[in-house]
């Protein structure tokens, strides 16, 4: 029975994901180790019937995206003085001397160019600030030792770190996005403009420090990140509008053939929206998960939701191995996994339920999910927030409900009118649409102020000086405890044998 369960595609992806644990060991060559073990597991998968397709896909992706970094150069590196490196980075602080570690490294020394899969730079003195996965450039380094797959460098007195990802993010804003923001600036007040830009264009630059702090203290900072929840809300509204437009009395609609078309048109329009606002990484991950879910919904019914989660996570990690260290990646997938774990405990709706019963079940379900995710994500959120609130689940219920049902549809309407506005008629429509955006923004701003005031009494500091192993142990313990509770409480009762 155990061997049979291990041969499922879900087990294959879970084993692949588990290899990312080498990221936690602090060794600069973690990526090389993970790639080698993933290649071995994918090769073994070619000989297991239920793993064969996925093993072949993983091997192909490893060859395309990781292969070019594993063909060593033969030129001599001796006698070269000052090196400049570019690569995806993280800081490792567990040792006696902090280290800046790079993945997919391109080095230059005068006219000499050389690539390493990984590089290690012991960093004495003040550590540079950047997020895991940022593309950085480090200048004025000297090569200490090097092997086929790794280089060890020494920092000089003039060594500087330049965050190229931050510069690229600013440059990547399309002319269309800048134009839409400029139009909104002429039609909205400063407070409303800040909320509109943050929620609909993924630009938080107009939010004041006090406003950002308010979102963090309320426990709703994830609303400002164009992430899975945000993407899901936009998808649902696009899908709803398309269903209304296509609900015409024609044969192919009556037979239900329009449902796959509506879903995939919604995905296409959602991708267009994400492209307009600069394709935020967290939203793109959620879009991939939605795509996989749609394929599962219409054609691959045998795949479990947990399989979609594990498969999407591993697909992203094949493209971006450094994502395992990003807080946004951890929170996104842990939140979705937590929701899947708690789904069996939620009250089930029925078509016979009246509006009052449906409303009560919605509130109970939302509170259960909010409370559970508050506990499950606490050890991760504590890394990025100095304070948390015991009222965070209730704050989420209030603001997510209002944003999802009122704010987002109005903001999307304003954005669509701005995109498709035409002279004369379009200008009047635009003024009307942004009058509505202004009104809804003021309501939300007032709601934020009110909830922030009564939230102050329930704040507590998040002082968790834990290492990554302690955090991981707590998360696994919570998920295991809920799994045991689910097995005990929801254990199926055997039916009596009536054939006696």
Quick synopsis:
The chain has helices at residues 2-6, 9-18, 30-45, 52-65, 164-171, 175-187, 190-200, 209-218, 228-245, 251-254, 258-276, 281-298, 305-319, 327-342, 355-376, 378-381, 392-420, 425-455, 468-489, and strands at 83-92, 99-109, 112-122, 135-146, 150-155, 161-163, 387-389, 459-461. It is of the alpha+beta class and 500 residues long. A five-stranded mixed barrel has the order 1-2-3-5-4.
List low-pLDDT spans. none
The helix-strand sequence is HHHHEEEEEEHHHHHHHHHHHHEHHEH
Number of helices: 19
| Broad shape | globular
Instruction: State the share of residues found in helices, binned by percent.
Output: 55-70%
Radius of gyration, CA atoms, in whole angstroms? 25 Å
Strand order of the largest sheet: 1-2-3-5-4
Instruction: State the separation between the terminal residues, measured CA to CA.
Output: 30 Å
The SS-based structural class is: alpha+beta
Query: What summary fits the major beta sheet?
Result: 5 strands, mixed, barrel
Topology, number of strands: 8
Query: How many separate domains make up the residues?
Result: 3
Q: Approximately how much beta-strand content do the residues carry?
A: 5-15%
Key terms:
19 helices, alpha+beta, globular, 3 domains, two-stranded antiparallel sheet, 500 residues
């Amino acid at each position: 029975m155990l061997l049979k369960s291990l041969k499922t595609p879900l087990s294959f992806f879970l084993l692949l994901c588990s290899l990312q644990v080498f990221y936690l060991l602090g060794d600069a060559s973690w990526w090389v180790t993970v790639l080698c073990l993933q290649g071995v597991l994918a090769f073994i998968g070619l000989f297991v019937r239920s793993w064969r397709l996925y093993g072949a896909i993983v091997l192909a992706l490893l060859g395309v995206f990781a292969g070019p970094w594993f063909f060593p150069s033969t030129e001599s590196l001796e006698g070269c003085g000052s090196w400049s490196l570019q690569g995806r980075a993280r800081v490792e602080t567990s040792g006696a001397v902090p280290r800046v570690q790079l993945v997919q490294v391109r080095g230059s020394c005068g006219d000499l160019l050389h690539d390493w899969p990984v590089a290690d730079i012991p960093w004495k003195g003040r550590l540079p600030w950047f997020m895991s996965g940022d593309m950085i450039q480090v200048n004025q380094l000297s090569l200490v030792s090097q092997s086929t797959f790794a280089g060890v460098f020494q920092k000089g007195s003039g060594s500087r770190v330049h965050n190229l990802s931050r510069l690229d993010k600013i440059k990547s804003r399309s002319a269309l996005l800048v134009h839409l923001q400029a139009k909104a600036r002429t039609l909205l007040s400063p407070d409303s403009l800040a909320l509109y830009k943050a929620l609909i264009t993924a630009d938080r630059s107009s939010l004041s420090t006090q406003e950002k702090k308010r979102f963090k203290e309320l426990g709703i900072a994830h609303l400002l990140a164009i992430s899975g929840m945000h993407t899901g809300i936009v998808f649902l509204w696009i899908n709803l509008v398309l269903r209304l437009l296509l609900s015409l009395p024609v044969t192919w609609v009556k037979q239900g053939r329009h449902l796959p078309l509506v879903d995939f048109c919604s995905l296409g329009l959602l991708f267009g929206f994400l492209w307009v606002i600069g394709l935020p990484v967290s939203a793109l991950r959620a879009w991939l998960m939605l795509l996989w879910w749609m394929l599962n919904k219409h054609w691959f019914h045998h795949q479990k939701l947990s399989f979609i989660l594990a498969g999407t996570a591993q697909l992203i990690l094949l493209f971006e191995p450094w994502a395992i260290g990003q807080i946004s990646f951890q929170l996104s997938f842990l939140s979705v996994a937590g929701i899947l774990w708690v789904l069996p405990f939620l009250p089930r709706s029925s078509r016979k339920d009246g509006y009052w019963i449906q409303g009560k079940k919605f509130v109970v379900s939302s509170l259960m999910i909010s409370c559970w995710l508050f506990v499950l994500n606490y050890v991760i959120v504590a890394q990025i927030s100095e304070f948390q609130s015991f009222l965070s689940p209730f704050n989420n219920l209030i603001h997510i409900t209002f944003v999802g049902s009122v704010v987002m549809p109005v903001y999307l309407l304003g954005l669509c009118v701005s995109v498709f506005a035409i002279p004369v008629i379009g200008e009047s429509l635009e003024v009307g649409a942004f009058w509505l955006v202004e009104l809804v923004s003021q309501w939300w701003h007032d709601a934020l102020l009110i909830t922030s005031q009564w939230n102050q009494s329930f704040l507590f500091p998040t002082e968790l000086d834990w290492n990554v192993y302690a955090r991981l142990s707590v998360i696994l313990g919570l998920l295991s405890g809920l799994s045991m509770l689910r097995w005990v409480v929801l254990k199926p009762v055997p039916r009596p044998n009536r054939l006696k």
